[in-house]
Amino acid sequence: MAIDATANAVTTTGEPGVPAPAAPRPTLDQDVLAELYRLHGGYLLRAMLRVTSGDRGKAEDIVQETLLRAWQNPAAMHRGPEHSRPWLFTVARRIAIDHYRMQTARAQEVADEAPEDHAGSHDPYDEVLVARDMAAAMAGLQPHHRDVLVELHMKGRSMAEVARVLGVPVGTVKSRNFYAVRALRPILEAQGMAWAG
Fold first, then answer.
1. Which stretch of 8-22, 42-56, 122-136 has the lowest confidence by average pLDDT?
2. Up-side HSE of residue 77: CA atoms within 13 Å toward CB?
3. Alpha carbons 3 and 10: distance in angstroms, whole number
4. Surface-to-core class of residue 183, CB atoms within 10 Å of its CB (0-12 exposed, 13-18 middle, 19+ buried)
5. Phi first, then psi: what are they for 10, rounded to 5°?
6. Which pTM value belongs to this model?
7. Three-class DSSP category at 52
8. Contact 173, 152 (CB under 8 A)
């Protein structure tokens, strides 16, 4: 015996057999979305330009899709636009990875080589996240320590070059580097990162 479920269905309107209209999905307020773009759009675009090797069209597409997802997920912005950058970067990273995977999947389909012959691709997205995390960790250091780390380890300058750039003796550069690394190491370990310098 088959039972017709729609015959017994009663909706909030009280009409049998007529399904209730779906409640509209909440979206982010237009002013909040504009504030998100104002605060974070430039940072997102610069990061995505690095990820896409300077392809501005792809980078802008990723930023636009990221903001669209923010618009569709107002609950993710509950702390306010000024605190939304980590969420936005995570979403942008996932979108960029999806774009990258789609692009490489298409290229593999066309290629004559077997998948096992194809060397593993370099994934630049993790580098962007590591750079962002490193910048956040270094923000907790004193400026003179941060300057030495940037010049010595990120720009790859010698001790003598750093001393000349910063206008301090070489011994001071060595001392500041020692204390900066010592101060940075527990910050990185707390974030699950390790100092590679």
1. 8-22
2. 26
3. 15
4. middle
5. -125, 130
6. 0.44
7. coil
8. yes
